[in-house]
Write a structure and sequence with these properties.
Blueprint lengths: L3 E9 L4 E3 H5 L6 H8 L3 E3 L7 H16 L8 E5 L10 H9 L5 E5 L5 H14 L6 E8 L9 H4 L4 E10 L4 E9 L7 E2 L11 H5 L6 E2 L1 H22 L7 E6 L4 H11 L10 H4 L4 H13 L8 E8 L3 E8 L1
Parallel strand pairs: 4-5, 4-6, 11-12
Antiparallel strand pairs: 1-7, 2-3, 6-7, 8-13, 9-10, 12-13
Helix pairs in contact: 3-4, 8-9
């Protein structure tokens, strides 16, 4: 079984920002209300003619450049997303076409906010077994397309963006351990009810606004804090480490209060917690990917130090992985 490491990282955020002041003009909310409850000050909004695959393409090109690889050197492309361009084909196939990665096998992973970590762990298995060499993993979302802009409890939370990495047989930024979990009993807590085989698109589903994201925020908050801390602890233990050995925790950027509560539960000081939620809000599968890339760009971790990625999302899904820089 070969070591698997990250040899390239990239990200893409749409240029347009939607601030809390902008939202004050759209729904019954205030800048103070949003910051107090979420820690979010602004989020990025992709134009209407820009699709999820377009965001993924820009992030992927950045990661390929960082890895000094050509698209045709990719053997596998995995895209983690819940906002595919369309029901099918997969966003990964659309990304393959846009990149010109003609030699890559492609598939998507749907694990909501935990999607990027699920995709990383999946890619690791293909590389460590020898099935593929260079694998592109992308977390990309255009969540503003499924946000109900009349629902102030959810529309303030979400933004668009994409993060990408290249995995290969390498001891560089090595994936050391992982922990993944799910609980379908909580599947009603965070969902888009219509548009699938259960409730196909109809006049009634559109009229009743069933194609927009729905969330039971209080329940999600309580579960998220508990299971994210547990997932991070499990991944750390599987690496043969303790919390004090971790240089940086990079959590899914859902809500500042959740992130601070997770750090407190793990006994980590704020300086060991990577935060960018105030700039981008919740970008689902893209959040952890973008945060990892920014931690790399800001040189927050030195060679030999340990990083933990952790996330929680609809499904319910959650997971964590440990990376040795």
């Amino acid at each position: 079984m070969r070591d698997v490491g990250i040899i390239g990282l990239g990200k893409y955020l749409p240029p347009k920002s939607l601030t809390n002041k902008d939202l004050e003009k759209m729904v019954d909310t205030t800048d103070e209300w949003i910051i107090t409850r979420t820690g979010i000050k602004e989020r990025r909004i992709a134009p209407k003619d820009v699709a999820c695959s377009d965001l993924a393409t820009e992030a992927a090109r950045s990661a390929l450049k960082d890895a000094n690889l050509k698209p045709e050197e990719l053997g596998l492309i995995i895209v983690a997303t819940i906002t595919s361009d369309m029901q099918f084909p997969s966003t990964s196939c659309l990304l393959q076409k846009k990149l010109g990665a003609k030699n890559a096998c492609c598939f998507d992973i749907s694990a909501a906010c935990t999607g990027f970590i699920y995709a990383l762990v999946t890619a690791k298995q293909f590389i460590s077994s020898g099935a593929y060499k260079n694998v592109l993993v992308v977390g990309a979302e255009k969540l503003t397309g499924m946000v109900d802009w009349k629902d102030r409890s959810t529309c303030v939370l979400f933004g668009d963006g994409a993060g990408a990495c290249i995995l290969a047989p390498s001891g560089q930024r090595k994936l050391v351990s992982e922990y993944l979990a799910s609980d379908g009993e909580g599947s009603d807590l965070l969902k888009v009810p219509a548009g699938g085989s259960l409730l196909p698109t109809s006049f009634e589903t559109v009229k009743n606004r069933l194609h927009f994201l729905q969330m039971q925020g209080n329940e999600v908050f309580k579960i998220a804090v508990k299971v994210m801390a547990e997932a991070a602890d499990m991944a750390i233990k599987r690496a043969g480490l303790e919390c004090r050995d971790i240089k940086l925790l990079i959590p899914h950027q859902a809500n500042l209060r959740i992130l601070m509560a997770v750090a407190k539960k793990m006994g980590l000081s704020e300086d060991r917690l990577f935060l960018n939620v105030e700039k981008y809000g919740n970008m689902s599968a893209a959040s952890t990917a973008v945060a990892l890339c920014e931690a790399y760009e800001e040189n927050r971790v030195k060679q030999g130090e340990y990083v933990v990625l952790v996330a929680f999302g609809s499904g319910l899904t959650w997971g964590a992985c440990v990376i040795k820089w």
